[in-house]
Write a structure and sequence with these properties.
single chain, mainly alpha, 3 helices, 0% strand, elongated
């Protein structure tokens, strides 16, 4: 069995190697063959001949490439002017933002002050109302007490009058009516 297992392991390894090669090389071969077949079927002109070996693998346009590290470090002639104008623009922008922030702060303070004044006015009105309600309540209690006292006195006089022989007649107003 060990011999057979070795042979099976070699076959499985070989199949795996072939699958890996097919996986890596397969797609590029497929597209290459597909393009070749499509060109031969649909193309009536001869294939273009170009010498691609003279061009670099990665081409960067001249305007975008720096040829040396020193080119990056070199300052342009107007760079100091540009730098100072940029600094001035940033300083001006900061001043504008600061002015806007101060104006916003002033507006917020003004609104807060107005709100405090309105709240104070409403509180004064509420205090006046509360005092008026207390005064009314005291006056009501006092008039209730006075009315009770008057009723008591009336009842007492009516009781004395009845004890002295007074009888209620048709011209006399009853205390129940009042």
């Amino acid at each position: 069995m060990p011999r057979r297992q070795k042979k099976t392991a070699k076959v499985v390894t070989g199949v795996m190697a072939l699958c890996m090669v097919a996986y890596i090389v397969g797609p590029s071969l497929y597209w290459h063959l597909n393009e070749t077949i499509a060109e031969s079927l649909h193309s009536s002109c001869p294939p273009c001949v170009c010498d691609c070996s003279s061009q670099p693998l990665l081409y960067i346009p001249d305007g975008l490439s720096n040829h040396s590290f020193l080119d990056c470090m070199r300052r342009e002639e107007g760079s100091e002017e540009n730098e100072s104008s940029f600094t001035e623009m940033v300083a001006e922008e900061l001043k504008l933002r600061e002015a806007q922030a101060q104006e916003d702060e002033w507006r917020a303070d003004r609104l807060l002050l107005d709100a405090k004044k309105a709240a104070s006015q409403y509180q004064k009105e509420a205090d006046k109302c509360s005092m008026g309600m207390e005064t009314c309540e005291q006056a009501r209690e006092k008039s209730e007490a006075t009315l009770d006292e008057q009723r008591r006195l009336s009842y007492m006089w009516e009781l004395r009058a009845r004890q002295n022989g007074w009888k209620e007649g048709p011209n006399v107003v009853s205390s129940d009516v009042i």
